[in-house]
Specification:
A hairpin with a 4-residue loop joins strand 15 and strand 16. Helix content is about 30%, strand content about 25%. Helix 8 crosses helix 9. The protein folds into three domains: about 280 residues, Bira Bifunctional Protein, Domain 2 (BirA Bifunctional Protein, domain 2, 2-Layer Sandwich); about 60 residues; about 90 residues, Anticodon-binding domain (Rossmann fold, 3-Layer(aba) Sandwich), CATH 3.40.50. It is built from 15 helices and 24 strands. The protein has a nine-stranded mixed β-sheet with strand order 3-10-11-17-16-15-14-12-13, with helices on both faces. It has a five-stranded mixed β-sheet with strand order 21-20-22-23-24, sandwiched between helices. The C terminus is likely disordered. It has about 500 residues and is α+β, with helices and mostly antiparallel strands. It binds zinc ion (ZN). Zinc ion binds next to loops.
Length: about 500
């Protein structure tokens, strides 16, 4: 029997959503391309993210910083010293695996954050052997996840690195942006862009890759004067949380979360905004904020919650975003290494950082995975319109009697009203509907004999397959009305 994962990835490959990079030359594992359909879905996800998070405060802005950054940045951030994973290499066949993941697979527990010594002891105790050839593993060693890069051709080669997260861009740009934005806090700096990690064993399709896209917002604030937030907007909204030690996730109203989770309104507000965004992506109720224990979280994070979504393909909750209160770790580190003064004017401390971090590829996949539907005669993605690759397909019923001309007119009018439509005249009408359903297009517009007589067209709804007649002149208006996306527009 074909699994949910196989079905989703098969459509993904066949319909140019996501596929392995440079397949014809033999893919390097951990690199994926977005195809003609996938690029549209990803772009719309990113635009929805922009719209949602940048509108939370007048002083939140998007910036675009470089992917290659100098060595000093990663001295300041601690990546050169700390950013590595424990690797287990098979003594016979040479296959390499992440030791903590290997143990997790064998023992069904989480082992993230253990030292090399602890992992070595566990490997021996449980007699973990290579899954491929059954030989024992060599001693576990830490391996850097950074991609170094030689910059320029001069003798004294400059070393740069591909950024392992977008976050370092805002930290390195903080001083200039703070000045340019009238030295006001909170200041939010967002980046949607590529990041790179030399993962030891990439896996789970786009969930653990070596090149990936992040959407991250860094909020800089004064920890002694927490910024005001419109908390009334979320006070009755329920967060779904799984605190450390709890067995099951529970719902907590934001107004109660302040006390129960021991976090100020400022932090709870941003958790709610993250959850509302995930919810708007067609995942109602299929997520939770999982709190990390002290062993699991980075030492500098005061609060660390993973936002996890249930993916049918993996049969479990997987991390798609993170809520991190990083204290003064970042600006403190950059100030120390650069000798720049990054203190808040008139204060003797640097701003603190709240990071809202999203893995774009993981989110796109989680949305597709949860939107996948199978019926006896078709499969389709019940995508929310905000991330559907197109809003509507426009089809002449047959290729004669001036139907194509009329259909092209309708198509043009839709595009001019800002509705993202495509035109398709090949194959039977049933096949055209099926093709569009398969990639999640919410509406099909058909131009038939009646259109030529009375100027009406058929609007077919993807999920219900129901049809309605609408006058062509009122079509853009009707589609906008139907859209009712979380953002309230097409
Ligand atoms: Zn082996």
């Amino acid at each position: 029997m074909t699994s949910h994962f196989e079905k989703v990835t098969e459509i993904s490959l066949k319909r140019a959503i996501i596929y392995p990079d440079a397949e014809m030359h033999g893919q390097m594992s951990g690199f994926f391309d977005y195809g003609s359909v996938g690029s549209e879905i990803k772009r719309r996800w990113e635009n929805a993210w922009r719209e949602h998070f940048l509108s939370l405060n007048q002083n939140f802005h998007e910036i675009q910083t470089t992917i290659v950054m100098p060595e000093q940045v990663f001295k300041a951030s601690g990546h050169l010293e700390h950013f590595h994973d424990p690797v287990a290499v098979c003594s016979k066949c040479g296959v390499s695996e992440r030791a903590d993941h290997l143990l997790e697979e064998f023992l069904g527990e989480k082992f993230e954050g253990l030292t090399v010594q602890e992992l070595n002891a566990l490997m021996k105790k449980h007699k973990i052997v290579c899954t491929k050839c059954k030989a024992p593993f060599k001693e576990i060693e830490d391996k850097s996840l950074m991609f170094p890069l030689q910059v320029g051709a001069s003798e004294d080669k400059t070393i740069g690195y591909l950024r392992p997260e977008t976050a370092q861009g805002p930290y390195a740009s903080f001083k200039r942006e703070f000045r340019a934005n009238r030295q006001k806090l909170p200041l939010g700096l967002a980046i949607i862009g590529k990041a790179f990690r030399n993962e030891i064993s990439p896996r789970q399709f786009v969930f653990r890759t070596r090149e990936f896209t992040q959407a991250e917002l860094q909020v800089f604030f004064d920890p002694k004067e927490l910024p005001e937030v419109p908390f009334h907007e979320v006070k009755d909204y329920e967060l779904i949380v799984l605190p450390v030690g709890a067995k099951d996730a529970k719902k907590v109203k934001c107004s109660k979360a302040v006390k129960e989770l021991g976090m100020s309104e400022f932090f709870v507000y941003f958790m709610a905004k993250m959850q509302q965004f995930i919810e708007s992506m067609g995942l109602p109720g299929k997520f939770r904020f999982a709190q990390l224990s002290d062993e699991e979280k980075a030492f500098y994070n005061k609060y660390h919650w993973d936002l996890e979504v249930f993916c049918p393909s993996f049969g479990k909750f997987v991390e798609v975003a993170g809520f991190h209160y990083r204290t003064d770790h970042d600006l403190g580190g950059h100030a120390a290494v650069s000798k720049e003064n990054l203190n808040i004017p008139g204060k003797d401390y640097v701003p603190h950082v709240l990071e809202l971090s999203f893995g774009v590829d993981r989110n796109v996949f989680a949305v597709l995975d949860n939107a996948f539907r199978e019926e006896s005669d078709r499969t389709y993605f019940a995508l929310p319109q905000a991330v559907a690759p197109w809003d509507a397909g426009v089809y002449p019923l047959v290729n004669r009697e001036s139907m194509p001309e009329k259909a092209l007119e309708v198509f043009k009018a839709l595009r001019e009203s800002g509705i993202k439509a495509f035109y398709d005249a090949s194959g039977t009408i049933g096949k055209r509907y099926a093709r569009a359903d398969e990639v999640g297009v919410p509406f099909g517009i058909t131009i038939d004999g009646d259109t030529l007589k009375d100027g009406t067209v058929t609007v077919r709804h993807r999920d219900s397959k129901e049809q309605e007649r609408v006058s062509a002149a009122q079509l853009p208006e009707r589609l906008c009305e139907l859209a009712a996306t979380p953002q309230g527009k097409l």
